[in-house]
Amino acid sequence: MVDMELLRRIIEAPGVSGYEFLGVRDVVIEALRDYVDEIKVDKLGNVIAHKKGDGPRVMFAAHMDKIGLMVNYIDENGYLHIVPIGGVDPRTLVAQRVRFFTEKGERFGVVGHIPPHIQRPEDRKKAADWDTVVVDVGADGREEAEEMGFRVGTVGEFAPAFVRLNENRIATPYLDDRVCLYTMIEAARSVEEHEADLYLVASVQEEVGLRGARVASYAIDPEIGIAMDVTFAKQVGDKDRIVPKLGGGPVMDVGPNINPKLRAFAGEIARKYGIPLQVEASPRPTGTDANIMQINREGVATAVLSVPIRYMHSQVETADIRDIDMTIKLARGLMEELREMDLTP
């Protein structure tokens, strides 16, 4: 069963790329502390938890950073002009709420929208961009905004908006990648006997260049690396280019970024536990922490385990609770059953 309270805490904890220390790091440490042999934070901010074993060094990585925003200018009217941290589409910000972390604590703002009544006909055909998106924080001028704690460099993120759509589906900002961070934590907490020497990494700064995974994999030097990250699920407008679907189970990639023997072993574990496993073709680098783990030092056997979601990098990312539950079970199975094996392709 999915622990909805813990899942929501992890999703809503602050932590834009480079600022994971604002909240999510402490949530991860608290959730894992009693279930691992040791836990530490490295110089970049990764949380690295270790469950000791006598088998191969295995690194599971789920990134804990979020895409977000940074103030780059406060105008004379007190409006915040912002730039993206990571892959934020400015069109998704119009008429939305934003949460900032100022010198004087947490503050909220709204991205304004010109009512259709007063729009010029030509403006109705234009999409929002970074030159037109501004945030209203309720200030009547730059001085008041600064008194509220806003500065150039203040960071923000989509405001919390967790909703349960029905018995099986949820929608919220930041399923990417907090839902996989949650699944990794829950799997690790439920592991019983295991042979592998397990390293569970809540990695930082994935959204701006896989930076946390780079330094963590160098330090751990794993033989096997499994990235846990979301992937695309079928949705309106995908033009049948997306194969995985919500409710169809966890997803694992095939392609050059994936060790074929490790992928085949994962398929065996899925069948053993009766877990349906969806396949995603990845002819190029997967865009996950597996990219950088694979080429660490002398090479690592890598795989990607994903929860499928709709509407990625928006405030309404949508997932199926059944997929989350099955991903936990598969991750647990891998943690318990990975052992010494020949993974040379």
Structural notes for this entry:
With 345 residues, the protein is of the alpha+beta class. The chain has 2 domains: 4-66 and 174-337, Aminopeptidase, CATH 3.40.630; 68-158, Elongation Factor Tu (Ef-tu), domain 3 (Beta Barrel). The chain is built from 8 helices and 19 strands. A hairpin with a 2-residue loop joins strand 6 (97-102) and strand 7. Helix 1 crosses helix 4 (175-190). The longest helix has 17 residues, at 321-337. 46% of the residues are buried. The mean pLDDT is 97.
Biggest sheet record: 8 strands, mixed
Helix content: 10-25%
Mean pLDDT: 97
- What class, by secondary structure content? alpha+beta
Unreliable parts: none
Overall CATH architecture of the largest domain: 3-Layer(aba) Sandwich
In total, how many domains does the architecture comprise? 2
End-to-end distance, in Å?
Answer: 36 Å
Give the percentage of residues in beta strands. Answer: 25-35%
Globular, elongated, flat, extended or rod-shaped: what is the shape? Answer: globular
Counted by DSSP, the helix tally is 8
Q: Topology as H/E string? A: HHEEEEEEEEHEEEHEHEEEHEHEEEH
Briefly note the CATH topology name of the largest domain: Aminopeptidase
- Tell me the name of the CATH class of the largest domain: Alpha Beta
In short:
The chain has 345 residues and is α+β, with helices and mostly antiparallel strands.
Draw up the topology in text.
Blueprint: H1 4-12, H2 24-32, E1 38-41, E2 47-51, E3 57-63, E4 68-74, E5 80-85, E6 97-102, E7 105-111, E8 134-136, H3 142-147, E9 155-158, E10 163-164, E11 169-172, H4 175-190, E12 197-203, H5 211-220, E13 224-228, E14 231-232, E15 251-254, H6 260-272, E16 278-281, H7 290-294, E17 301-306, E18 308-309, E19 317-320, H8 321-337
Parallel strand pairs: 3-12, 3-13, 13-17, 14-18, 15-16
Antiparallel strand pairs: 1-2, 2-12, 4-5, 4-9, 5-8, 6-7, 6-9, 7-8, 10-11, 11-19, 15-17
Helix pairs in contact: 1-4, 4-8
